[in-house]
Amino acid sequence: MNSTLSLNRPVRNYTLGSFKNPKLIEARPSRHQLCSHLIDFSKLKWFGNVNSRTGSSVQQQLRDYSGESRRITSRRIRVSSNDAQFGSFPNKGGTESSSFAEFITSERVKVVAMLALSLALCNADRVVMSVAIVPLSLAHGWSRSFSGIVQSSFLWGYLISPIAGGTLVDYYGGKAVMACGVTLWSLATFLTPWAAENSLLALLFARAMLGVAEGVALPCMNNMIARWFPSTERARAVAMAMAGFQLGNAIGLTLSPILMSQGGIFGPFVIFGLCGFLWVLVWLSATSSTPDRSPQISKYELDYIMNKRQKSHAVESKPKTKMIPPFRRLLSKMPTWSLIVANAMHSWGFFVILSWMPIYFNSVHHVDLRQAAWFSAVPWCMMALTGYLAGLWSDTLIRNGTSITLTRKIMQSIGFVGPAVALVGLTAAKTPSTASAWLSLAVGLKAFSHCGFLVNLLEIAPHYSGVLHGLSNTAGTFAAIFGTVGAGFFVELVGSFQGFLLLTSLLYFLAALFYIKFSTGERVNFDESDS
């Protein structure tokens, strides 16, 4: 679709000095060349030697030539909407903002939509066990503490892969590593019924392999967003991708009981595994690792991405990452530790809520499994919505002049202090509806963390975002294992979930203070020359 533009620009008074700059007309090349013969200097030989004494004749010729330019530039010119942004040329430096219509129909949104789908499958595959653990525990006579061990087997594998996976992502790119990861975790999910029928050891191994494969998902997301989105859109892009991540929880928790009632206890594992294989086929055929390699991207969108992104933060403009990253230098900076602490606390709260809330509603509020799954799913839908709104607000703050550092601290403070207060309210809930409301508030505000530490990974170390995410994810996995297993033992010893929720609330407050103290939105120098 084309749009008609009228260029009513003031006419320049061309002088001899203007021909020293070949850019007489500041417009980027397109298939519609604007007055291209005006800047073809091979046709200007009739000017003579501009350094000769015949200056008066040259000035007369320049006046004639300027008069011709007035007649040409006064015409109406049709420009493709792919090369102009809804009625305006990109200004110098490409600093114009992308409109919503262009953004939502762009190639980069297609990429982030595919990432959101993969993260939805990622969480759906892991959350199935949170529902299946109830009938499995009854069938096998497992205690609460042993049920926690079975659920944590996913995290054993998740502990191994983030650092190695992040390094592979930085070296090979997010597209290839994500395809391998989804293929492996879909296979592990698909084979879980067979493993459970054979032995407990096989079941634990299948769940651990699921964790190994899913450990690359978030580093791949960060890598692809860093390549495809300028800094003023990254919070929104992360929020969109993480919305899929949270909806995967809701999908897994709500569909699993339905699929179990129709196809047996292992029906969801088979369905979600097959969906993963289908996703891989679409991902490999419809997406590209970087914008400049995409055959579908428009020339306008490619120029917009490359111009808006800060050159020093462009992943592909730097030499390929070393296979062995500088771990010592990464761990020597306090901003790195602020991300590690934030990820650890985020994972603690995330996996405790994800793994234990169906059992919490079933045992504390005495609702059946299907109702417990629905009560547990509502907060994740809230998280998907608030996460996107947080992304919009974060990007707006930065565009309006708020520093990146302050913006990240605001987002992270809401993402930790909000859940801390809401979990205190959850301990006093008397009905399932009230408990679900407090839990929805806690999980919804937790989404602001995605615009805090999760985007901050791209800002302090864009060239090492994959391995840095792997380091923080490893710490987060340790915390998740400790929280998931510890919750089971804590409930057995104390006799209630309330005490563990209060402990989690306290840890949220402490982690928020640590992040506010030591985090930064500026790029941190991890180069050898800085040591």
TrEMBL record:
Extract the Pfam families matched here.
MFS_1
- Where is this protein found? Membrane
Q: InterPro entries given for it? A: MFS, MFS_dom, MFS_Na/Anion_cotransporter, MFS_trans_sf, SLC17A9-like
Q: How does it sit in the membrane?
A: Multi-pass membrane protein
- SUPFAM superfamilies per the UniProt record, alphabetical: MFS general substrate transporter
Q: What is its main location?
A: membrane
Q: Which GO terms describe its cellular component?
A: membrane; plastid
Sorted UniProt keywords: Membrane, Transmembrane, Transmembrane helix
Instruction: Give the Major facilitator superfamily (MFS) profile domain ranges.
Output: 111-523
- A single GO molecular function term of this UniProt record: phosphate transmembrane transporter activity
Task: Tell me the superkingdom of the source.
Answer: Eukaryota
Name the residues that span the membrane: 148-169, 202-225, 237-259, 265-284, 337-357, 377-398, 410-429, 435-458, 470-491, 497-516
Q: Which family does it belong to?
A: Belongs to the major facilitator superfamily. Sodium/anion cotransporter (TC 2.A.1.14) family.
Q: What is this protein called?
A: Major facilitator superfamily (MFS) profile domain-containing protein
Origin species, per record, is Gossypium darwinii (Darwin's cotton)
Q: What is the lineage of its organism?
A: Eukaryota, Viridiplantae, Streptophyta, Embryophyta, Tracheophyta
